[in-house]
Amino acid sequence: MPVALFLYLLAQPASDETWGTLSGHFWVVSGTAIAAAVACAVVIGTARSLRETRAIFLGLAFMSIAAIFSVHGLLTPGHIHDGVLPELKISTWLSVLSGGAFIACSALSLPPQADEWLKRNGYLLFGGVAVALGAYVGLSLETPQWLGWVPVDERGLQLAAAALTFALLGFGAVRYYQAFQFARLPSQWAMFVTLVMLIEVQTSLTWGRFWRYSWWEYHFLYAGAFAVLFTGWAVEALRAGSLRALAEGLTMRDAVSQLNRGYDQPIADLIDAIELKDLYTLGHVRRVASYALLIGRELRLSPVDLRSLALAAQMHDVGKIGTPDRILTKPGPLTPEEFEVIKEHAERGYQIALNVRTLRPVASAIRHHHEKFDGSGYPLRLERETIPLLSRIVAVADAYDAMTSGRVYQPAVSHEDALAELRRCRGSHFDPGCVDAFIAALSRPEAADLPRPVSRPAPAA
């Protein structure tokens, strides 16, 4: 719609009338700058620390837009200085360009060495850019014409800057759309739409007619982009019951992209993202993988199958990335509607795995780890040997750890009681061969070195 309106105004110059006031310009621009500053605060505030490289770059994107675009507003003629200063014109172009550059960095798959360096020195980068932006604002307000040497009105320079900005924002939009395809989080969709609107901002800025409707359009698109972003974030926070969900999409975006490039370390990052959804399950994924491998060795699986089993066990709950925290951590029985939401994680995990080259071989194992041997499970109600063997193994390991570590809605049970429950459900919920293999493996000396859960009592009602 904004593009259609802009093209209409360009095609019909008579309709592209002069409009607006200096005071209105000041308030629209200042409001947008404040919104960008709030966005920066939200991103950094919801991140666990400045060791999260995606959060660093996205926070810097919003901070640079806030600081640089604020100069455009403050230098509106008649407020601090009279006349149109070069810093006023430059700041608009620079705000979108710098924001696009940092957004592109937030979507970039960094080599492991660079990522590790940023995790160790993220606070230095963030602080250094903050100081540089502060210097830019100070010089622009206190030293008029300090950028007078920049040929900001030269059309060739403007088109070159626009082309670079389009490339950066376009790259970021594609990558954030890919992230949305993985987890389907509202915050990821809002980020994609925001980037599309920033591309439209640059279009209006480049070809709009000064002080006419086509020129004013970029101001309102700039403000509208943040309105869309905040709406998406609000929907995500209400849906998940936690602001932490906003940073969740960033963690997944980084780990999934690096997994697609063949790096192994992001598996640990995804495991952390899964377990931080619910502190009652802290360590659950790694313990399930250990128990699953114990069963797999007892069943004499090949080394290749054991590797796939370990990966499937580690990633079996990856679909919970998109499950609302308020449901995962609910201290009591779930309603039928809430349980349906929980069940979605199996199918969501399958879709995520299909989109990640490293996880694709175990996608079916992830999808079916909640199927039951008698066909009463989900999502497809498979039964007996139609359930993938890796799924049947993970189901036993997952159930044992859930019983012995406890959950927010139920206390932990003893090792003996957990084994008794596995025996009771042998042939109904669980594959008898997998249950027998697990019990036999636990009796062997090497089982003594397995990680043990730290039981947590269920909270008082």
Q: How is the main sheet built? A: none
- Please mark out the parts with pLDDT under 50 across 5 or more consecutive residues, or reply none: 258-266, 455-461
How many separate domains make up the residues? Answer: 2
Distance between the termini: 52 Å
Percentage of residues in DSSP E strands = under 5%
What structural class do you assign from the helix and strand content? mainly alpha
Shape: elongated
Number of strands: 0
What is the helix content?
55-70%
Mean pLDDT: 85
Cα-based radius of gyration, to the nearest Å: 27 Å
Number of helices: 18
Structure in words:
Residues 258-266 and 455-461 have low confidence and may be disordered. The protein is elongated. It has 461 residues and is mainly α. Helices cover 67% and strands 0% of the residues. The chain has helices spanning 2-11, 22-46, 53-74, 86-107, 112-142, 155-183, 186-207, 213-240, 244-260, 265-275, 284-298, 303-315, 325-328, 336-354, 363-367, 389-405, 415-424, 432-442. The protein has two domains: 22-240, no CATH class; 264-449, Hypothetical protein af1432 (Orthogonal Bundle), CATH 1.10.3210.10. Helix 2 (22-46) runs antiparallel to helix 3 (53-74), helix 6 (155-183) packs antiparallel against helix 7 (186-207) and helix 11 packs antiparallel against helix 12. The longest helix has 31 residues, at 112-142. The protein contains 18 helices and no strands.
